[in-house]
Structures are given as structure tokens and as C-alpha cells.
Amino acid sequence: MRKTLSSYSEFSNNPILKPPFIVIELTKRRSKFETIIDILNEIKRGTTRPSRIMFATNISFKPFKKILKTLTDKKLIYIRGEGKRSRITLTEKGENILVYGNKTIELIM
Q1: For 78-100, how does the pLDDT look when each residue is reduced to its tens digit (9 = 90+)?
Q2: What pairs with residue 22 in β-bridges?
Q3: This prediction's pTM
Q4: Positions of E strands within the chain
């Protein structure tokens, strides 16, 4: 989220900074639960390639691999193929978790 500030009393001695300038607010980190729900939502939308899911959910490689392993161990997703040809699909159990997870996030937020 961006805010435009019109006064710059803190920076008044600096001739380079003149209003309006933009301050970017940092948001809180996502919880592991929110990250998992984001991944499941992306798979539900039809993204099946692991790299595309990783980029769409803004997760780096190592945490993404750990989460994928957890999701496959819990049988929430199914990975077909290997390497560049691997595709990820959502299982029925994964769809149920996604429905309840989205409802939980709605209630919390």
C-alpha cells in the first residue's frame, strides 16, 4: 500500500526530497497456513506447473519444496510426472481443506 505525503518536516534539510514523495508500508509476513491456502487456491485456479505456482504465490524455492512435500504427504495434492514435465493437481481432500481454509481466513480477516 502506498501513501503520498505532502509534508516532509523530517527531511527538510535535504534539497533532493521534495513533496510529494511515496512511502511504502511493509506488510506482515504470511503464516504457513495462509501460504498453504494460497498454493491450494492457485492450483484450484488451474495452474499446474510447480514453477508457475511458486511465482504466482511469491514463494522462494526451498520453502516451496518443503510445503509441496508436506501437501503430498498429507495427500492434499497429487504430483504427476517428474522434472520439467511434472504437473500438480488438487485431490478431493485438498479441495475440502481449501474450502474450510478460505472460510477460516474470511472469519479471521
Answers
A1: 999 888 889 999 999 999 999 99
A2: 4
A3: 0.72
A4: 2-5, 21-24, 77-80, 87-90
